[in-house]
């Protein structure tokens, strides 16, 4: 049996074991506790060890910039496509999807597989790229959510400049309190001074190494325990996720075409990293915005839809990432990545084509009204 296929079967068995453990999980609180353990202890230890075991070159500082550009490209592509995929323009569902789809959560959906298939160096590079993604997810999307809330409730005077400054201050403090951010800053500081993993005392090195070894099995079990098959809105969500994955693959193919000769491991990283699941942070942003309303619901977003997207995104991304990595270096070529991207885009594009044929032609005043709504939405 091919080693990559054998490793994939092991991963699938661990996910299946987590799925059958769902009966032992009493409510969402215990599942949230496992997630906290992963994001606050195991993942920071894994990234810390990985960063200190590779040499960081100046050229790699472009990775966060490329990740930030990827987020922006996914946002604008989603803004154009969502009205054609069943999410009406100017609706709470549309705003919810525009907040979720550009975000990436590589910690739970990508890093374990990069570690197992491509090694610690690829994981370290992905962690550096994730810095740009975090800037977009934690700052840009938060400001966008607050802008939509302010635009909707400006006449009621429910937001003030002072409250915005206070929330931005709280956001900055939250960024500094995140264990992953602290670990990345600490590791980069040590690398700047020429220190590596061997510079640590033996007991600290052994502790971090043992925690990092827990990464893959714990995350795979968590994926299995977190899977929830919700029939409601499933087709709508899968279309949006397929569009997101297809666009990301086309962007990856374009980058591989513009930069020929990349090592296979780095080329696969370019393809796999954008396939990470949707991040939890946009859901946290929109939940906070919804809580700003006088009755506890601002009506700007659709939190139930966001939860369903989060539930579907993790297994969807896991299947795509495992499928790519299980094929060896096949998808390290731009042509292969582009073909897979077009295949994933076929479903949402076919739906959009059929919808355009079935939906009645809008009245002459519809286009002007839609333009006015869009301008009111983006106007500061």
Report on the architecture of this protein:
The protein is mainly alpha-helical and 380 residues long. The protein is built from 17 helices and no strands. Helix content is 74%, strand content 0%. The longest helix has 34 residues, at 120-153. The radius of gyration is 21 Å and the shape is globular. The chain starts with a helix and ends with a helix. It comes from Neolewinella lacunae. The chain crosses the membrane at residues 6-22, 34-54, 60-78, 99-119, 131-150, 171-191, 211-229, 241-259, 265-284, 305-325, 331-353.
Tally of extended strands?
Answer: 0
User: How do the helices and strands follow one another from N- to C-terminus?
Assistant: HHHHHHHHHHHHHHHHH
Termini Cα gap: 59 Å
User: What percentage of amino acids are in beta strands?
Assistant: under 5%
Shape assignment: globular
Key descriptive features of the protein:
transport, 0% strand, transmembrane, Na+/H+ antiporter like fold, 17 helices, transmembrane helix, globular, Permease
Describe the structure concisely.
The chain is mainly alpha-helical. The protein is 74% helix and 0% strand. This is Permease.
Topology at a glance:
Blueprint: H1 3-20, H2 27-52, H3 62-81, H4 92-100, H5 106-109, H6 111-117, H7 120-153, H8 161-177, H9 179-192, H10 202-213, H11 215-226, H12 234-258, H13 264-272, H14 281-290, H15 303-325, H16 334-358, H17 364-378
Helix pairs in contact: 1-11, 2-7, 2-9, 2-10, 2-11, 3-7, 3-12, 4-15, 6-7, 6-11, 7-14, 12-13, 12-15, 12-16
């Amino acid at each position: 049996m091919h080693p990559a296929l054998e490793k994939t079967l092991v991963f699938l068995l661990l996910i299946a074991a987590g799925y059958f453990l769902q009966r032992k999980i009493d409510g969402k609180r215990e599942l949230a506790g496992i997630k906290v353990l992963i994001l606050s202890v195991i993942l920071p230890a894994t990234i810390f060890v990985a960063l200190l075991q590779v040499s960081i070159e100046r050229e790699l500082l472009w990775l966060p910039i490329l990740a930030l550009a990827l987020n922006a490209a996914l946002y604008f592509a989603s803004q154009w496509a969502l009205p054609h995929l069943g999410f009406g323009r100017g609706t709470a569902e549309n705003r919810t999807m525009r907040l979720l789809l550009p975000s990436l959560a590589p910690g739970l959906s990508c890093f374990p597989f990069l570690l197992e298939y491509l090694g610690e160096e690829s994981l370290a590079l992905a962690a550096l790229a994730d810095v740009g993604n975090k800037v977009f997810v934690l700052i840009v999307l938060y400001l966008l959510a607050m802008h939509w809330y302010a635009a909707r409730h400006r006449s009621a005077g429910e937001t003030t400049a002072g409250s915005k400054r206070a929330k931005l201050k709280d956001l900055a403090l939250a960024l500094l309190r995140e264990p992953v951010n602290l670990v990345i800053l600490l590791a980069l500081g040590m690398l700047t001074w020429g220190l590596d993993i061997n510079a640590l005392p033996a007991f600290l090195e052994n502790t971090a190494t043992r925690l990092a070894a827990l990464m893959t099995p714990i995350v795979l079990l968590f994926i299995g325990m977190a899977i929830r098959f919700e029939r409601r809105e499933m087709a709508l969500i899968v279309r949006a996720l397929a569009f997101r994955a297809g666009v990301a693959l086309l962007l990856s193919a374009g980058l591989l075409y513009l930069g020929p000769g990349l090592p296979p491991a780095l080329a696969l990283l370019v393809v796999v990293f954008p396939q990470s699941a949707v991040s939890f942070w946009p859901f946290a942003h929109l939940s906070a915005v919804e809580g700003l309303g006088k009755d506890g619901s601002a009506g700007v977003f659709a939190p139930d839809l966001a939860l369903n997207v989060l539930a579907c995104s993790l297994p969807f991304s896991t299947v795509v990432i495992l499928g790519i990595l299980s094929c060896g270096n096949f998808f390290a070529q731009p042509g292969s990545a582009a073909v897979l991207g077009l295949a994933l885009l076929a479903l949402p594009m076919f739906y959009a084509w059929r919808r355009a044929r079935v939906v009645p032609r809008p009245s002459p005043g519809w286009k002007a009204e839609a333009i006015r709504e869009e301008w009111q939405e983006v106007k500061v």
